[in-house]
Amino acid sequence: MKLPIVAYGDPVLRKVADEIDEDYPNLKQLIADMFETMYAASGVGLAAPQVGLPIRLFVIDATPFAEDIEEEKEVLTAFKKVFINPIMVEESGEKWAFNEGCLSIPDINEDVLRHPNIKINYLDENFEEHEIDLSGLAARVVQHEYDHIEGKLFTDKLSTLKKTMLKGKLDTISKGMIRVGYKMKFPFQKKKR
């Protein structure tokens, strides 16, 4: 089932998410719904807060990037994962810029500086523990989604000037005065009479 994606301005996007356990209600279905929602919106990652749930869960499928980034094609093609209760162990390397967007902040893309290498510990959908090292775009996608469960957005990483320039667009998004090709939930949308 496709879930509505929460838009910029909703308080759930600013909350540090809570850990979950194996008894979280309908977890397998939620994970399936999150993948379906992400694919329907042409995303490569989706965090639970983006569907209104303040829990430490995100899904990733970086396959679409594999077509564009030849040197990372092998890693990205196989990079479909579920991250439950992740812990960022390490971020390293000289930060590099890449143009990012977000399903909760449609029609805004900006260059964001992030570390090229990370080490992350997480549980998969079967609650088996993993610790992996990632680099390049795989690391970037994970960092973006990890920020979501920490109550952070990619716009937080922009300069003060850039944030000021985007304020009008962000207000328009939070009021639901945009059109997107997927279902969204807007925090300040006026009700139709």
UniProtKB/TrEMBL annotation:
Please list the cofactors this protein needs: Fe(2+)
EC code: 3.5.1.88
- Per the record, the domain of life is Bacteria
Q: What is this protein called?
A: Peptide deformylase
- Give the UniProt keywords, A-Z: Hydrolase, Iron, Metal-binding, Protein biosynthesis
Which annotated residues bind Fe cation? 102, 144, 148
The protein's matches in HAMAP family, at most eight in alphabetical order, are given as: Pep_deformylase (MF_00163)
Q: Cite the active-site annotation.
A: 145
Q: Which reaction does it catalyse?
A: N-terminal N-formyl-L-methionyl-[peptide] + H2O = N-terminal L-methionyl-[peptide] + formate
Q: Which PANTHER family match?
A: PEPTIDE DEFORMYLASE
Cite a single GO MF annotation: peptide deformylase activity
List the transmembrane segments: none
